[in-house]
UniProtKB/TrEMBL annotation:
The keyword rRNA processing does not apply. Keywords: Aminopeptidase, Hydrolase, Metal-binding, Metalloprotease, Protease, Zinc. This is Aminopeptidase N. It catalyses: Release of an N-terminal amino acid, Xaa-|-Yaa- from a peptide, amide or arylamide. Xaa is preferably Ala, but may be most amino acids including Pro (slow action). When a terminal hydrophobic residue is followed by a prolyl residue, the two may be released as an intact Xaa-Pro dipeptide. It comes from Janibacter terrae. Residues 228-424 form the Peptidase M1 membrane alanine aminopeptidase domain.
């Protein structure tokens, strides 16, 4: 029996009866006309005896499916592609599914979650898939707790730069250009991304790993320097504070278009042109997205209800950077945002389970950061940062839950913290400002 919809926040996505171990994606894309032709080869492993699986694939037409080299029966319905395996695959056994597909990709719309996925720009593409947009461009098992490695090849017309969540693995030049990337660190589907545009690459030096910016040539010099110029120092600071950077490199893509919000992918973040400015609003988001490489991308939630483990931590990282560069201290930021959360007249929010409509509510970010600040006030700096570093290290490239975090912090600090987390995560009322 195939179990559908493993996460109530993103219903109808994911199939827990199997895991994907590796995705091999060969994609051709015409920017002019928004036409995608893809072939996805998935190495899968059965988690129970199964004779069919569900893949997620939205609005793209399935041309042909093979299982272990043989043509397979399949049926597409409401974003689900059910594939008959032709036999019962025993638990623990691998099988290979190959899907040829094509169409005009676009964002996936959800009433509760909004839009996510493949999106055309003025002259290019972004993929911002969190949390439900991955099936807009490849067939996948769309669960955050099913991490896999990837090889991605994208063939586009000459003149475009292609950035992918992964390390460059060569290019082939012909009438068009094929860009190859490989992602060897396990990655959930929603953190896979493709960015296409008329960009140039700026290498930044001084960080423990390669740091680059992929941006339009005609960028404003001052705004660019103010917002992105300190990325290597920022990465170094976060590595000192949270432990080694978890991936091989870091890339910030700045699109030619303005974007409403930036977004993290694995080893890569996407910003709009409007984020090249010297305001704290720009600088803090550069810090926020970079810190997601630890909080969210390496250490990833198992269920979307635990989103504070990503956003609260990333917001707290902004405050740490603020203090580091001599702007407001963490304590001052905490005070400001405690007052704002207190005065917010939005619907009641339970930080530990905010529901899909409120999962990206600003209070998840700010109250999440305040929760960490309360923890720090309680256990002291040394034990707090030790707990963060060991959390990042123990669960590097893994999946976690809030219960695991509470258990971890109690073990590392030797304190009973049930009351603190109960107050901050599981009651609506805002606790007093931690001092
Ligand atoms: Zn974030």
């Amino acid at each position: 029996m195939t179990r559908r919809g493993s996460d109530p926040y993103v219903p109808g996505h994911g199939d827990s009866s199997y895991d994907v171990e590796h995705y091999d994606l060969e994609i051709g894309y015409r920017v002019d006309g928004n036409r995608l032709d893809g072939e996805a080869t998935l190495r899968c492993r059965a988690n129970e005896p199964i004779d069919r699986i569900d893949l997620d694939l939205h609005s793209l037409r399935t041309v042909k499916v093979h299982v272990d080299g043989a043509v397979a029966r399949h049926r597409a319905h409401l974003g689900r592609l059910t594939v008959q395996l032709g036999r019962t695959v025993p638990e623990g056994e691998d099988f290979e599914v190959r899907v040829r597909y094509s169409g005009n990709p676009g964002p996936i719309r959800s009433r509760k979650l909004g839009e996510a996925g493949w999106e055309e720009l003025e002259d290019g593409v972004i993929v911002a898939a969190q949390p439900h947009g991955a099936p807009s461009w490849f067939p996948c098992n769309d669960r955050p707790d099913d991490k896999a490695t990837y090889d991605i090849a994208l063939t586009v017309p000459k003149g475009y730069h292609v950035a992918v969540a992964g390390e460059p693995a060569g290019q082939t030049h012909g009438r068009s250009v094929t860009w190859r990337y490989t992602q060897q660190a396990p990655m959930p589907t929603y953190l896979a991304t493709v960015q296409i545009g008329r960009y140039e690459v700026i290498e930044q030096t001084g960080a423990p790993v390669p740091v680059r910016v992929v941006a339009p040539k005609d960028r404003p010099r001052e705004g660019f320097e103010a917002a992105f110029g300190m990325q290597p120092q920022m990465l170094g600071f976060f590595a000192e504070t949270f432990g080694d950077y978890p991936f091989e490199s870091y890339t910030a893509v700045i699109t030619d278009d303005d974007l409403e919000i930036p977004l993290e992918s694995q080893g890569l973040s996407t910003f709009g042109r409007n984020f090249m400015c010297d305001d704290w609003e720009c600088i803090r988001l550069v810090a926020h997205e970079l810190s997601h490489q630890w909080w969210g991308n390496s250490v990833t939630l198992t269920h979307w209800r635990d989103i504070w483990l990503h956003e609260g931590f990333a917001c707290y990282s902004e405050w740490l950077w603020s203090e580091r560069i001599g702007l407001m201290t963490v304590g001052e930021r905490a005070e400001v945002h405690h007052a704002r959360v207190r005065d917010d007249d939005g619907p009641d929010l339970l930080l530990g389970d905010p529901g899909p409509e409120l999962m990206f509510d600003d209070r998840v970010y700010k109250r999440g950061a305040l929760t960490l600040h309360a923890l720090r006030a309680r256990v002291g700096d040394a034990r707090f940062f030790d707990a963060l570093r060991t959390w990042a290290d123990t669960h590097r490239h893994g999946n976690v839950t809030t219960a695991m975090f509470v258990e971890h912090v109690e073990r590392v600090t030797g304190e009973d913290l049930g009351g603190l987390f109960e107050e901050w995560l599981y009651s609506v009322e805002l606790p007093p400002l931690p001092v």
